[in-house]
Amino acid sequence: MTTRGIVIGFLLLVLAIMGLNSVFVINEMQRAVLLEFGRVIRHDIQPGLHFKMPFVNEIRAFDGRVQTSDAPQERYLTLEKKAVIVDSFAKFKISDVETYYTATSGDEGRAEQLLQQRIRTGLRNEISKRTLHEVVSGERDQLMLVLTNALDDVARLELGVEVVDVRVKRIDLPPEVSQSVYSRMNTERDIEAREHRAKGEELAKGVKADADKQVEVILAEAYSTSEQIRGEGDALATATYAAAFTKDPEFYKFYRSMDAYKRTFANKSDILLIEPDSDFFSYMKQSKP
Fold this sequence. Notes:
Blueprint: H1 3-21, E1 23-26, E2 30-36, E3 39-42, E4 48-51, E5 57-63, E6 67-70, E7 74-77, E8 83-94, H2 97-104, H3 108-127, H4 132-138, H5 140-158, E9 161-172, H6 175-245, H7 249-264, H8 282-286
Antiparallel strand pairs: 1-4, 2-3, 2-5, 6-8, 7-8, 8-9
């Protein structure tokens, strides 16, 4: 191969390398900045095929999708100075790629570290304004909403990222106070259970007493009604007997004597001492042939 051929081949190789270095592609999931000797000269690069000056310009592309930053557990103090251990995470994405590159030098690990610092600061500020009950259950959703909005404003301005959401995965008490807190909670629940049980027993006694009272009233009214009906019946029977016996006094006297004989001689073991000429045996005497 001649010297001329070598030179031409070298020039073609250089041109090929320059051509490859002058073309770049950005897809729809990326955000990119165009640098000139390390200085940002363009940040609004749209997805597609683009050209740059080789060896002068440099392209830095970053993931534009929503990412997750899982923060390590941190210890915070509530309004009443009670310690809690919070495990949280954040969802974020790049909103301003120029600010993002300037703040982090394009280091995604650095960006996540800075974001986690601001999450910890925000959690510390918000938890310190609330009691333990509010942090754990009462105002937990409100706490997350306030923290997300406040962190989003700071992150957009300082880091060029949009904070989509901040969530707490877990809130624990420190091991040294967990047992005492659980014991106090058990004691409080036991006291509450006893109060409910006492109220239930009091209510049950009231219901039973009322039921017993109603039973007594019903029985008394029933007895009164029965006695009234029985009295009316006895009065009617007496009137009927009187009306019947006044029609034939002799028959009434005879009937009474027969009834007296039946009751007197019902038990053969009884002994009766009476004069034979007594009026008691008048009808017996009359019955002799």
